[in-house]
Amino acid sequence: MLQCASSNGGTQSRASLADLPAAQRMASVRNTWSARTIWANSSVRLIPANAYLPRLGPLEMKKLTPRYREWLRRRSLYVRMRRGLTRVRYAEFTTLSGRRLVKISNESPIPEILCLDRNNEESLVFFHDLRLRTIRKASGRIKPPTSKKKSRIGWVRSYTDFSKVRSITPGAALILAAEYDRVRRNTGIIGAINLDKWDKNVLSTLSQLGFFELLGFPGDFSPNFEGGVDKNLIYIAPMRCGDNTDYREAADDIRKLFLEVGGDMALKRHLFGAIVDAIENVKGHAYGNSDNVRNLIPPLWWFSGSADPVKKILTLAIYDQGQTIPVTLPKKWPLEELTAMFAGAFGTQFRANTDEQDGEAVEAALRMSRSSTKLPERGKGLSKILNVVRQCPGGRMRLISRRGHYIFSDGRGRHLTCSTPLLGTFIELEANFSNDGGENG
Known about the structure:
By secondary structure, this protein is an alpha+beta fold. The chain has helices spanning 14-19, 22-32, 66-82, 120-134, 170-187, 200-209, 211-214, 248-261, 265-286, 292-295, 325-332, 335-345, 358-367, 382-391, and strands at 3-5, 11-13, 33-40, 43-48, 89-95, 98-104, 113-114, 155-156, 167-168, 192-193, 235-236, 240-242, 301-308, 313-320, 396-409, 412-432. It folds into 3 domains: 3-48, no CATH class; 89-136 and 152-204, no CATH class; 234-441, Histidine kinase-like ATPase, C-terminal domain (Heat Shock Protein 90). The longest helix is centred in the middle third of the chain and has 22 residues, at 265-286. The chain is globular, with a radius of gyration of 32 Å.
């Protein structure tokens, strides 16, 4: 029988310890003996607490492989579902091949309002999270039912439920569509969750932009807008994209937008020239010689515009996913000029390897008096675009590049550095051709 030494040097049988209440028994053993045990001669004996034991190092565990870690995660989810600890959620998944029922998990949050004016921070957080979740190539597919297992239901393990969005502006819709265009080009795996539950006005905005054609839906696909649709929706030009300076399709759309708002034709020509400069700026500087995150980011620009026939407001926007202005600024301009610019305009020292000066960097790019190519036919780049906006009635401009923002409104401009970066550059120009002014949210 296993014997245990007592606190007074005697012995105490296991049976006598078992006769004690559980709390007293554990306290007696804890006070007298170490919790460590050793194996010797196929018997176990407790080691006195004051006995010397070599220091034991940390347990050496084999590093889990990604494949085994994923297997453990899925097994844990399966066990939880079998035990009723996790409720399986179902949704309708719409793709170019039709609609079907799927199981869903890992929902990514999305704000109710996607707008860079009224809900700037939450919108930027969503776009930033979307890029990080979709930058790697996806694998897998939604398997169709087979003859052996007709009830098989596939999984969608990472998704965004757009039925929660109540409002989206054309500028935010352009960024959203451009991000999903990148996903489609890289993976070809794209679809919509619970499309019938989406807000009607959100559906209308995305439909005019060409978002559903982008998803690969049939050409005759058109959401049901019966009931609950704002009759005063603005006209939105279809999204255009390209990898060069061929902007003929974009030019045709801009002319249609001009017809919706009327106004001075000379100013419209200046606005058209500003968009052309923005497209050329993307082609010349946004992507450069970078590998674009292992070629997962296509070297494209995306353009769209909108016109409000009632308020006479014209909005033009262009977006790219390349190197941002704060990144390319030190590459385009000599350090001496940047140092002088920051000291004179902002009263601070220029620092290249930081994102805390992104607001100042964006305004510095707008202040530069010449193009970095030093070619007279290229004009003044971003500064020329700002000058065009100054001449327009009710002219407004929003420029976002990484954490830097520059907003021009009411004849004044200001810069700021936000906490969440936009992984690209977004330029939005606005002109109000009505007599009483107005704003476009």
